[in-house]
Amino acid sequence: MITYSLRCTGGGHGFDGWFRSSEDFEKQRRLSLVECPHCGSTEVEKGLMAPAVSASREVGAAEAAATFAKLQAMAREARAKSDYVGKEFAAEARKIHYGETEARSIYGEATLPQVKALADEGIAAVPLPPLPEDKN
Question: Which InterPro entries match (predicted)?
């Protein structure tokens, strides 16, 4: 996952967005799927970003790859034990939280504003790392 510092060109509001790749961000932006959580504008561009630098120690490429592989294994396990609800993730999470449907593990897609709204309601949602098979 890539975290971009974003800003809407209309209101100049700054916010962060998580994307699978730079291409994913550009595609979502072209389709007006990226919107400012402050004003709802879909006129969004990347803001200035500082590189992520670890001052305490340098993580080697092999260690970083091994950590990412572990995260992918955990994501596969979570998916295997959960129901895929697609773009209805936020709505289904609310139904489960408020007891309108049976409690179960789910996964799917949600926009950043949807995830923030869930958090405001006390509903936990965490991003899963991308998997190579997602691109097939």
Answer: DUF1178
Signed CA dihedral, 78, 82, 87, 89: sign only: negative
> Pairing relation of β-strands 14-19 and 44-46?
unpaired
Domain segments of the chain as ranges = 2-46, 64-125
Q: How far is CA 125 from CA 27, 103, 109, in A?
A: 24, 15, 10
Q: Please check whether residue 6 is in contact with residue 44, taking contact to mean a CB–CB distance below 8 angstroms.
A: yes
Q: What is the tens place of the pLDDT at every residue in 80-113?
A: 999 999 999 999 999 999 999 999 999 999 999 9
| H and E: helices and strands count for the chain | 4, 5
